Amino acid sequence: MVTKPTIARIWRGRTRRDVADSYEPYLRTEGIPPLQEVALGVQLFREDRDEETWFTAISYWPDIEAMTAFTKGDPIKVHHLNRDAEFLIELPERIELHRILVHDPSLR
Question: Which domain of life does the UniProt lineage start with (predicted)?
Answer without folding.
Answer: Bacteria
